[in-house]
Each structure stands twice: as structure tokens, then as C-alpha cells.
Give the backbone structure.
Amino acid sequence: MLIRQRNMKQSKVIRNQLQKTQLLMTPSVLNTSLSNLKNFLKQMIRLGKQNEATQFIADNRLEHVFSLWPFNARSEQMPTCWNWTTWLLMGGRGSGKTRAGAEWVKGMALGDPYFTTAAVGRIALVGETYADAREVMVEGESGLLSVHQNEQRPQWISSRRRLEWPNGAVAQVYSSEDPDALRGPQFEIAWCDELAKWNHAEETWNMLQFGLRLGHFPQQIVTTTPRPTTMIKKLLADENTFVSRMSTTDNRSNLASGFFDRIVKIYAGTRLGRQELDGELIDDRTDALWQRDVIEKHRCPKPETLCRTVIAIDPAVTGHAKSDACGIIIVAMGADDRAYVLADETVRGVSPSRWSSRVNELYEKYGADRIVIETNQGGDMAESVLRGANAQMPIKQVKASRGKWLRAEPVAHLYERGLVSHVGPLAELEDEMCDFGLDGLSSGRSPDRLDALVWALTELMLKNETKPRARVL
């Protein structure tokens, strides 16, 4: 009897709140009321009172709430306050951060009272590249086109890189590879995806801030896997940033069970897993051979003149999901006698014939002068698969006679002397570099990207100083 009276009293409170929110249509009030309703219904179901809960919904005409994103979202997928300039949503792979970003933009564009008091008309969508922005933010499974119902769905005009809503709202797509494109346009809100991987991150961000000048209160959401980059640290230190964190496990019900069996079990608890799955911002190891600020200091655009280009490979002998990656790194010498790391084309879980075919494509694309391949694993097999892809490739086999740390140390000194620059961000390679200590990577896995980098820079800059056993073919 006491439980019944308490439930009746609580339902009356909820009903009064719902009536009040019809008059006070602000996002804060609406979301508080919706949260209370959600908790009330959960409690009724836990007590076995499904019929009473159903009747309460019918009496108050609340059937529509089950299709509302604020009702279905996890708490970290909605902001709990609204006076922020930047909402920084850091999450692991598959944690639902893209869905949260798309739903926020949708709500703002449609004038959804759970998000805003008035619809916005000018929106910026900024991704690492134009292709990433289109494939993830616009056309992805959790992207903007998928979260709209048919009558509300915007039209994607690919030739103009823009979305147009039936109500007149417009979202323009931009890339961190082209910060100058943000000079001139102006916006009310912006969605920035994977900021930690942006090219020209600071310049692109600054240009966007100058353009956020329309409406009564410009805002932006940043959805990203956390990395300890300069931009992420600046946002965390900004008092106008609202921070949400989410993990891959939080979204388990929406992910394939095989993903957890294959990936989560391998990386759970490791440094990489804490970053990529748990969404933690992990500071670099103090005992690592490389420090991120040294890499950042010398990052630069691709130079106009390159003198010699090397593709280095740390091959994977097998091609199943749990195999080591096949590290593929492209490095070139500039006319200024400095080395430029152009690309990380590492692949995982592919057969030797697949990665050798990819190397041949890169050989043609970059006009490489030499292919350097470590043959400690696979021996002449590594050479033969490359020859099968292109018999004319200039291949050099190298065999490691010293440990990884000893081979990497002279290369790290090149960075400290300012003789190596990364062309744009190479996030996964840099994560390995800044996590490589005397005991290897904290995950215990092989540093395949780093190994390939070491061989490339040794070939270009250190072959007269160090003498690994090698033969030229």
C-alpha cells in the first residue's frame, strides 16, 4: 500500500512537471522533466507495474517520447548544462559519440526545444578530411542523414559539400586539410569530428572560431577519441568547455558481440585500450623514447622539393585479425637535408599478397627510390611477394641484429636535433612512438609502425653510421 501511494504521488509530480514544461519550453527544463519521466517509468517496471506505466503514458499522451533522442540517449550523450561554448565529447571507438554529435546538430537545425529555443540556420561540419566528414558525419551509420525521419531529412548536395534542410537550414562541410576555406563564412554552430587527428589543427580551429559569430549564442561540439594533443589540452583548460566522457563498453548493446571478443579482450586494461576503448586521455610515458612536444614542434606541410623517397616495411607473416600489423611508412629527404615522414599506410589483418599489392600502389604513387623490408620474419618470402606485385621494384632487405630500443635510439636523436618533420598528424604512429619505452609498448604488442619508421630513417640518414646486416637486390 505504501509503495502504491508513493508511486501515485510520484506520478502526480511527474504529471505536474510535464504540464509546466509546456509553458517553460527551455532545454534545461524539458530535459530535466524527461529524465524524471524516464526514471519514473523504469521504477514502475522494476516494481512489476507495467500496466500502470502503460496507462500513465496513455493518459498523458506521452507515446511520442519513446522516439525522442533525449529519452533514448545515455546521460553522457546529452549535455547537463547549456551555458557552454564548446562541448568536448571524448569517447572510445564505437562509444556513440558520432550519434551524439549528429543528434545535437539535428536538434539545433530543426529547432527542437530539447536542444534550443530557436532553430539555427548556418552550420559548419569540420572533419579530418572531406572524405571523412562525408563518410562519417553525413552519410555514416550514425551520421546526419541516418538520424532524420524522411520528412525532416536534409538533402546532401555532394557537388557543393553541403546539407540543406526543408526549413532552410544549411550545413557546409570543411576539412582540416584546407583551413583557408573557413576564411569568410560565418556560422551559428559547428560540429568538429576527431579533432585529435586534424591536419593543421590550430590554424583550422582558429579560422572556425572567427566564423562562429551568428545567432544569440554560438556553440560547437567536438567529438573525438582522446589524444594528449595541444588542442585537446587547451580545450580541457578552457572554463567555457563542457566535457563528457564515454567508453566503448557503455555502448555494448549497439555493437557486434564479435567486436568485444576480438578487440576488447586483446586491449582491455592496456594503455592503448584505455585511450581507444575507455576514452581516457592518457598522458605520454615519461620514459618514452619520443616526446609528443618534440614531434609537434617540427610538424610542417609537405615541402615542394623532395630528393629521395623510401618506403619501409615491417611485414606481417600471417593475415588474420590477431596478427601483428604490417608496418608501412613513407619517408623522403628534402633539399634541406632534413627527413619528412609523409605517410603511415600500415595495414592489419591482410594477407602478404594484399600488403605487397598495397606497397606497389604506394611505390607508384610516391615515385619511391627504394623499398626497405625487414626480413627477420619470413626471410625471402617477404621479397618474393613483393616481386610478385612488381618485379621491377628496387628492394633492399635488412635484418635486425640488435634490439628495437637500440635501433630506435639513434633515430630518436634525429628528432631531438630537429632533423625530422612529420607532414601533418600521423596519430597512430605517434601514439606508438610516445608509448615506446625500454620494455617496448605498454600494451605488449609489436611496434610495427615504429619499426618501419626506424628502418626508413636509418636508410635515409644513418646508414653510414649504423650497419645493420643488409644486402641490396
Notes: Residues 1-6, 466-473 have pLDDT under 50 and may be disordered. The radius of gyration is 26 Å.
